[in-house]
Give the backbone structure.
Amino acid sequence: MRLALLHHPGAREGAWRVEAAEGRAKQMRLWPNPELEFSAEEMPTDGGGFGASLNQAGISQTVPFPGKSVLDGRIGRLAVQESEAGLGVLRAEIERDAKVAFFRALAAEGLVSAAKELADLVDQASAVARERARAGAIPEQELLRAEIASEQALAELSGHEAERLASRQALAAAIGLPGLGAAKPVGALRETADLSSLAGDRASAVTAHPSVVAAAVALDRADTGVRRAQLEPMPDVTLGVSAGRDEAAGAGIMGFRVSVPLPLIDRSQGKAREARAEAAIAEAELDAARQRMARDLVTAEVRLRAADGQVATYRERILPKARQAAALVRAGYEGGKLGFIDWLDTQRTLAEARIAYQQKLFELNAAQAEIEALLVGPRVVNQP
């Protein structure tokens, strides 16, 4: 997970989105730049140029209407918080996907182990069948069936080995380091579910999830946008001061200027309407995020509990009985009391049970990873 959060492109992209939001927030708090002005009035057209005109140089500054800059700054800060929560969602998904890919790779290792054990057993049985066929103890068709079973076991082993390679490459992609495609995962799949995290307050868990936090911040930002839109028609004042010289009179002069736009045509009616609609959309999205989180949490819990029960059934009942049956039939087959088909059926039953157990273990661990992603809580954001 550490490697995934460090190298996955999505994590880096999300961190840079936070950085971009912080840059926009900083920009939104700034006043417009002052303007440097120069004017030359009453310039004679028959000669004299600037030496015979009223020349002034000055500076002007637009002053936003009180409250606009404050609301702009708040909108920017909320946008940063929304980006941070979005990055939290991305990181939770990256961690979940990395875990699931790792568990799938571990399950693939178990499938290869089960298939290899079956192939070795069938190969040994085929050797026994050849010896018996030479001695005339079994008919030729039973030897052929033994050889066919051996070829089938090898083919199945080859298929599981290909799946193992694909799962390792998928794990490397989930981490964000494709060069690790040949690395072998080390570890063991969880065999029992951890239900302790489900004992807490579900409502608080839903509220704390980054996706819900992002939706709540988006609603706050939209509500602030409505207030900002209400101030948009209020005019910004431009103040200017200038100084110069009347060359004809040989005297210094000063000027003051105040400019106020008249909101007669454009009173930002469309912006106010858009802001109200955006706030309604954000409120609906927050409600949808909460419902989606609550639904996903219930679904994930059902999957986890079901997988936990199935794994326990295989571990405590199915696999022990399959192993016991295989051992009894193998002893009977090697002693000549049972046929090869009887032995092969029990070995295949054991192999299929082991393969199914590995699949159930993967389902259990994947469901556990989903629960952990849903109960992730607030995330700490690191800069890119």
